[in-house]
């Protein structure tokens, strides 16, 4: 791929990945027929669907929507392979803890290296038997569930996945289950449980559920803000660009990237009612990003770092140590990606320091099996001089299989991505 190119036009990004996982899980738990529209087509969400099918949930693909016949009727007869998806593994662990069944969860080599003790610890204290490699810290995880008691859990990490796993187990536990977060995270589980008829109490950063059954529902999944962030940064840094993204989810904890890019001086108009985001290219200035910002931009930091590399001044990101336990160590892989474009960037224990420069040349980047690093590198390449090569591009299929088509569409065919096998 050779830049720089201008981006122009209007697109719809895929259905939100976090919401898609939950739509399938909650439809799977609700006895009866639910429907889901606008589901993400990425591999991560496909893994959640496959896992639910092993419990006896039935899916029928209709024209433009998915029909789900819910109810966990069967103990899975095989190991559930959740591919690259941390959300699938942690949320399904919560579901399994509530079932009188034995389940084994595994994933690819990246997922098997990510910490699972953050869910194993609270699920054990509710009464589930959870084991795995390194004393239950790493998958494969073995879970024997059922007979749970509610807990009051002060989570040491600001993680919507941990919160959701405990809440899902709480739906089958005696008494009430409360999770208190150190910083509020995305609220998809709270919002969607309410849609499926569950009473959820939210009090600041505390959320409480009781033993409940779910009622089937119709879910319409809106566009994924984390995917829109790639086009927002691309349109800001590629000269003469103007892009519109339609039908975005605009709820709590997901649109922090719009605020950060505005703080950098970016021209973004966001209509939260319609979910329409319009971006016009223009100069950016460095910004300081701290721990309080991180939960709202946790998946967008690699691409926000690309914006920082094109901004005037030095950007400092701190309080982002959670990035070290994502699909890759995203502090390391983001800094390496920026350096490949000739940018001066350095790791810190909990973030990075990035010196903005107008002289970015195309480079050779490794995704480290991480979809967001691959796509952030592609965006950087669109606004750099000379060709960019991204090894391990196949990782993009986990969340955004149509990304390359959108590059071609928004660049009017001027930019083309060609896969190179690493
Ligand atoms: O709950 C979710 O759907 C997610 C929560 C975040 O992870 P953590 O909760 O572990 O921070 C995020 O990084 C992930 O992409 C999706
Ligand atoms: C961290 C991510 O997802 P997960 O934790 O579900 O693998 C992501 O999509 O950036």
From TrEMBL:
<dbReference type="InterPro" id="IPR006264">
    <property type="entry name" value="EPSP_synthase"/>
</dbReference>
<comment type="subunit">
    <text>Monomer.</text>
</comment>
<feature type="binding site">
    <location>
        <position position="326"/>
    </location>
    <ligand>
        <name>3-phosphoshikimate</name>
    </ligand>
</feature>
<dbReference type="Pfam" id="PF00275">
    <property type="entry name" value="EPSP_synthase"/>
</dbReference>
<feature type="binding site">
    <location>
        <position position="159"/>
    </location>
    <ligand>
        <name>3-phosphoshikimate</name>
    </ligand>
</feature>
<comment type="function">
    <text>Catalyzes the transfer of the enolpyruvyl moiety of phosphoenolpyruvate (PEP) to the 5-hydroxyl of shikimate-3-phosphate (S3P) to produce enolpyruvyl shikimate-3-phosphate and inorganic phosphate.</text>
</comment>
<comment type="pathway">
    <text>Metabolic intermediate biosynthesis; chorismate biosynthesis; chorismate from D-erythrose 4-phosphate and phosphoenolpyruvate: step 6/7.</text>
</comment>
<dbReference type="GO" id="GO:0009073">
    <property type="term" value="P:aromatic amino acid family biosynthetic process"/>
</dbReference>
<feature type="binding site">
    <location>
        <position position="18"/>
    </location>
    <ligand>
        <name>3-phosphoshikimate</name>
    </ligand>
</feature>
<dbReference type="InterPro" id="IPR023193">
    <property type="entry name" value="EPSP_synthase_CS"/>
</dbReference>
<feature type="binding site">
    <location>
        <position position="17"/>
    </location>
    <ligand>
        <name>3-phosphoshikimate</name>
    </ligand>
</feature>
<dbReference type="InterPro" id="IPR013792">
    <property type="entry name" value="RNA3'P_cycl/enolpyr_Trfase_a/b"/>
</dbReference>
<feature type="binding site">
    <location>
        <position position="330"/>
    </location>
    <ligand>
        <name>phosphoenolpyruvate</name>
    </ligand>
</feature>
<protein>
    <recommendedName>
        <fullName>3-phosphoshikimate 1-carboxyvinyltransferase</fullName>
        <ecNumber>2.5.1.19</ecNumber>
    </recommendedName>
</protein>
<dbReference type="GO" id="GO:0005737">
    <property type="term" value="C:cytoplasm"/>
</dbReference>
<feature type="binding site">
    <location>
        <position position="372"/>
    </location>
    <ligand>
        <name>phosphoenolpyruvate</name>
    </ligand>
</feature>
<keyword id="KW-0028">Amino-acid biosynthesis</keyword>
<feature type="binding site">
    <location>
        <position position="17"/>
    </location>
    <ligand>
        <name>phosphoenolpyruvate</name>
    </ligand>
</feature>
<keyword id="KW-0808">Transferase</keyword>
<feature type="domain" description="Enolpyruvate transferase">
    <location>
        <begin position="3"/>
        <end position="405"/>
    </location>
</feature>
<dbReference type="InterPro" id="IPR036968">
    <property type="entry name" value="Enolpyruvate_Tfrase_sf"/>
</dbReference>
<feature type="binding site">
    <location>
        <position position="22"/>
    </location>
    <ligand>
        <name>3-phosphoshikimate</name>
    </ligand>
</feature>
<feature type="binding site">
    <location>
        <position position="161"/>
    </location>
    <ligand>
        <name>3-phosphoshikimate</name>
    </ligand>
</feature>
<dbReference type="GO" id="GO:0009423">
    <property type="term" value="P:chorismate biosynthetic process"/>
</dbReference>
<feature type="binding site">
    <location>
        <position position="161"/>
    </location>
    <ligand>
        <name>phosphoenolpyruvate</name>
    </ligand>
</feature>
<dbReference type="GO" id="GO:0003866">
    <property type="term" value="F:3-phosphoshikimate 1-carboxyvinyltransferase activity"/>
</dbReference>
<dbReference type="InterPro" id="IPR001986">
    <property type="entry name" value="Enolpyruvate_Tfrase_dom"/>
</dbReference>
<keyword id="KW-0057">Aromatic amino acid biosynthesis</keyword>
<feature type="binding site">
    <location>
        <position position="86"/>
    </location>
    <ligand>
        <name>phosphoenolpyruvate</name>
    </ligand>
</feature>
<dbReference type="GO" id="GO:0008652">
    <property type="term" value="P:amino acid biosynthetic process"/>
</dbReference>
<feature type="active site" description="Proton acceptor">
    <location>
        <position position="299"/>
    </location>
</feature>
<feature type="binding site">
    <location>
        <position position="299"/>
    </location>
    <ligand>
        <name>3-phosphoshikimate</name>
    </ligand>
</feature>
<keyword id="KW-0963">Cytoplasm</keyword>
<feature type="binding site">
    <location>
        <position position="114"/>
    </location>
    <ligand>
        <name>phosphoenolpyruvate</name>
    </ligand>
</feature>
<comment type="similarity">
    <text>Belongs to the EPSP synthase family.</text>
</comment>
């Amino acid at each position: 791929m050779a830049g720089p190119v201008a981006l122009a036009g209007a697109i719809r990004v895929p259905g939100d990945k976090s919401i898609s996982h939950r739509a399938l899980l909650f439809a799977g738990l609700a006895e009866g027929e639910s429907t889901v529209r606008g589901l993400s087509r990425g591999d991560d969400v496909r893994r959640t669907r496959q896992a639910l099918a092993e419990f006896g949930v039935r899916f029928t693909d209709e024209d433009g929507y998915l029909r789900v016949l819910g109810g966990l009727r069967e103990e899975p007869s095989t190991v559930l392979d959740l591919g690259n998806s941390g959300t699938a593994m942690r949320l399904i662990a919560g579901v399994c803890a509530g079932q009188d069944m034995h389940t084994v969860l595994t994933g690819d080599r990246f997922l098997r290296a990510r910490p699972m003790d953050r869910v194993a610890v609270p699920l054990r204290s509710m009464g589930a038997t959870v084991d795995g490699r390194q004393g239950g810290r790493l998958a494969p995880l073995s879970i024997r569930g059922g007979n749970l008691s509610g807990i009051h859990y002060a989570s040491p990490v600001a993680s919507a996945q941990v919160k959701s796993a405990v809440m899902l187990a709480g739906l089958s536990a005696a008494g009430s289950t409360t999770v208190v977060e150190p910083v509020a995270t995305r609220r998809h589980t709270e919002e969607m449980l309410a849609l499926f008829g569950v009473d959820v109490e939210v009090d600041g950063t505390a959320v409480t559920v009781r033993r409940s059954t779910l009622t089937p529902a119709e879910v319409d999944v809106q566009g994924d803000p984390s995917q829109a962030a790639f086009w927002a940064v691309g349109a800001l840094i590629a000269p003469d660009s103007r892009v519109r993204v339609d039908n975005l989810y605009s709820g709590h904890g997901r649109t922090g990237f719009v605020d950060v890019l505005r703080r950098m001086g970016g021209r973004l108009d966001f209509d939260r009612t319609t979910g329409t985001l319009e971006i016009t290219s223009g100069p950016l200035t460095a910004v300081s990003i701290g721990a309080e910002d991180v939960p709202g931009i946790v998946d967008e930091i690699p691409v926000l770092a690309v914006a920082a590399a094109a901004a005037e001044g030095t950007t400092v990101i701190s309080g982002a140590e959670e990035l070290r336990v994502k699909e890759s160590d995203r502090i390391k892989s983001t800094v390496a990606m920026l350096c490949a474009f000739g940018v001066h960037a350095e790791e810190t224990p909990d973030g990075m320091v990035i010196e903005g420069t107008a002289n970015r040349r195309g480079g050779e980047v490794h995704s480290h099996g991480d979809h967001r690093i691959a796509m952030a590198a592609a965006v950087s390449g669109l606004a750099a001089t000379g060709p960019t090569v991204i090894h391990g591009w196949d990782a993009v299929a986990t969340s955004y299989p149509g990304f390359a088509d959108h590059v071609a569409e928004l660049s009017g065919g001027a930019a083309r991505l060609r896969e190179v096998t690493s």
